[in-house]
């Protein structure tokens, strides 16, 4: 009996989790594993880059969960700096190029995992490639940015383009390097993953932290000096001096290879899979991580969410299925947490516009409370917004902005959403209470009580 | 039309929440509210006493959520320092004594709320009433203890009797006053609300904090000096020098009045109510807070849990029902959180012995992880233990011991228990992930994955 060959395209979270889990279930005599990675790194935490750049994490290598050597020691045939350029679906083979030697070759597969990740959105604007303009998606990006910061002149002005998770996290990182920080945000408020009323709270808090946020700012050009280095970022009606520019505009699924051979893509450009993470219509091809779309369990449609925690779950499930076990990824409820300095930001489920987009009628309730008993030292304000379905009262979403202990409280709502709870059921939840950890009514319970009232009022109106 | 009269026995969380909520729904022309409270305080946070004694909270009045004056301003006829000594169920009246004047009188009711709370367990041992021996259930207790600490001699040795929530919290408080602290614990390990293997972690951490914990220590006497003040605490085989003794042995339902007139009590001595908090068999009598038993939704039997968060919910529900609305308290899953210095302790659902007691077969999984990404500053160990039902994999309980961010993670399990989730369903939970808040696999997910493996193994064994 010859071993089957599993080929993996992409050596980061999804791909290498799949490899590791498959190897746990099947030894090399049963399953040969070949993984292609075009960069110099495997299995690293892209989510950790803002904290490395900001200096919280001092060692780049700490972000690497598992090195190529560690993978190879577990009988995973890893080919670094090797880029897959073509998939031959019918012929069950992939073409790869060794980026060092230029050598190109075909490798056959019995099973294929596509884990090509996401690529940063880069608007085609003048000056986008100028020295001093930096993305922060890869470790190489982070290294280049850190070197650029060292070279920045005394004025130390940073412009961050984009006010989503990466944007606000990078604003904090730049602040920690002593830069004057301006965030240019295309939307109405920062953190477009929140409703604007909650985004407004983030804006105000960023003001308080000394970060200038400019909303409705559409970047039109990066201006450079005579040395070619960045000097300013231009918007329609203003110009913001910059010694360094950080691009935190977001990412899109990297599905060039898949698109070229007609694999099924969703409305957001990500690969479509079934719940076992098999590419729809292809029994021997799986896909996971930032290159796929995931089912939004609250909205009942697919979304693209680039997040390491999903990628790891996908990889683990793919590895189980490839290795002869069985696992499924039922979908997401859209949970995300972040912070800017000590301000914590969290969301799960649907925003108002998401609910409207899928035709759900809803009520909202917003409350202010604290993360600890009001009399306990360090009790600081927390705002919780809750969306519930009109009449039924089914929980639709929660957004939280606050300080100590705000962010992970969203997990309460994430589980309640998964379970399909109503806000009335949530009012009875037996949540942990002690003065250092919560008021006697947890803020989530207070929001649920107000949401119940809103549901009842709307139902009788 | 004359107003109905609502009589409330007990002016703390449950009683005054009921009063407030009833008043919100019905004005004084419809409902007269008379509340009897034997102490000098209303609506105070007993859970906050350890933090006031320890100095985290400097102002005693901060623990009072609402003063008698504030209640009276809302048309609640509050009679302070007045103790109800008898309930006449058939006659629909209560007898009360003004503790100041000694005057006794009967007051009729249309509706009655019993919110008599709990009383501390006080073993009948020699020396129990000596100066320097203190309970910590009431604000007066706390005040007396603080005064005793001021009078303690230079040696400053404190013995805490009991190693449950109050015991460990008071150990921290004594430590903050510069005392040498010894905790005498009757059980195998501190925190008997955890399984002993998890209690062991608390023990080790308390050692590390400089708190001496003596397990299997049965107190036999409090020894006093010639001045009558406490000198030592004696156990069967040892004597522990003490300048101050704090009793944290626990509480039992205060149901003397109810018992005297044959109201239904459960196996733990607490009043039995239906889900609307009506005393079983009595249409016009409600009960809530520390004097009732609550339904344990996981074990399917009643328990006695003295906790402010339940008392507040009970009061709110009673007030709704008395006021013409409708609410129910479905029960608890047994969530509790606490801390000793920076060590966080949390539990929900069943311990091993609880599961055995109700005849449930189970498997366990224990994992170690961190509350943040391993590379993020301040990532510290966290141990999560999970119990799942044999074969079905239904979640039965979770215990967590760790540092930053450990305690409130138990809320994830509390919601999952309420929803009846299996540990396999939990592995797919979309929990908040970002490096400052969680590893890419949240510790609860890691525990769920290990529990799935344990369920599968046990099922095929």
UniProtKB/TrEMBL annotation, chains A, B:
Keyword list, A-Z: FAD, Flavoprotein, Oxidoreductase, Redox-active center
Domain Pyridine nucleotide-disulphide oxidoreductase dimerisation: 338-440
Statement: the UniProt record of this protein carries the keyword tRNA processing: no
An annotated Gene Ontology molecular function: oxidoreductase activity
Pfam families per the UniProt record, alphabetical: Pyr_redox_2 (PF07992), Pyr_redox_dim (PF02852)
Domain FAD/NAD(P)-binding: 5-313
Cofactor field: FAD
Similarity comment text for this entry: Belongs to the class-III pyridine nucleotide-disulfide oxidoreductase family.
UniProt protein name: NADPH-dependent 2,4-dienoyl-CoA reductase, sulfur reductase
């Amino acid at each position: 009996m010859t071993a089957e060959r599993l080929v993996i395209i992409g050596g980061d979270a999804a791909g290498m989790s799949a490899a590791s889990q498959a190897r746990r279930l099947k030894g090399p005599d049963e399953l040969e594993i070949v993984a292609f990675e075009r960069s110099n790194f495997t299995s690293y935490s892209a989510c950790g880059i803002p904290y490395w750049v900001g200096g919280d994490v001092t060692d780049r290598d700490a972000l690497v969960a598992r090195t190529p050597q560690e993978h190879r020691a577990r009988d995973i045939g890893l080919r670094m700096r090797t880029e897959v350029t073509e998939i031959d679906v019918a012929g069950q083979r992939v073409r790869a190029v060794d980026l060092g030697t230029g050598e190109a070759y075909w490798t056959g597969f019995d099973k294929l995992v596509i884990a090509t990740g996401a690529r940063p959105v880069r608007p085609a604007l003048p000056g986008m490639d100028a020295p001093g303009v930096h993305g922060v998606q890869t470790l190489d990006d982070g290294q280049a940015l850190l070197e650029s910061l060292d070279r920045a002149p005394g004025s130390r002005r940073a412009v961050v383009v984009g006010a989503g998770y990466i944007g606000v996290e990078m604003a904090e990182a730049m602040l920690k390097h002593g830069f004057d920080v301006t965030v240019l945000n295309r939307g109405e408020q920062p953190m477009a993953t929140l409703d604007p009323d909650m985004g407004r709270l983030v804006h105000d808090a960023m003001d308080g932290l000394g970060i200038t946020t400019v909303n409705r700012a559409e970047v039109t050009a990066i201006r450079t000096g005579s040395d070619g280095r960045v000097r300013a970022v231009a918007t329609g009606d203003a110009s913001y001096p910059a010694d360094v520019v950080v691009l935190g505009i977001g990412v899109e699924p990297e599905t060039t290879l898949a698109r070229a051979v007609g694999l099924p893509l969703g409305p957001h450009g990500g690969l479509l899979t079934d719940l076992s993470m098999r590419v729809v219509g292809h029994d021997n091809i799986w896909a996971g991580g930032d290159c796929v779309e995931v089912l939004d369990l609250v909205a009942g449609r697919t979304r693209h969410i680039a997040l390491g925690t999903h990628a790891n779950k996908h990889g683990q499930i793919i590895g189980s299925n490839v290795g002869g076990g069985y696992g499924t990824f039922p979908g997401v409820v859209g949970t995300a947490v972040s912070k800017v300095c000590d301000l914590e930001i969290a969301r799960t489920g649907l925003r108002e516009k998401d609910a409207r987009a899928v035709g759900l009628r809803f009520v909202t309730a917003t409350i202010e409370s604290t993360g600890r008993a009001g009399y306990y030292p360090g009790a600081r304000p927390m705002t919780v917004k809750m969306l519930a379905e009109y009449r039924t009262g089914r929980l639709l979403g929660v957004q939280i902005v606050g300080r100590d202990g705000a962010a992970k409280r969203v997990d309460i709502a994430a589980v309640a959403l998964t379970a399909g709870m109503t806000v009335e059921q949530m009012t009875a939840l037996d949540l942990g209470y002690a003065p250092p950890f919560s008021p006697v009514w947890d803020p989530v319970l207070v929001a649920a009580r107000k949401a119940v009232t809103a549901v009842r009022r709307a139902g009788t109106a």
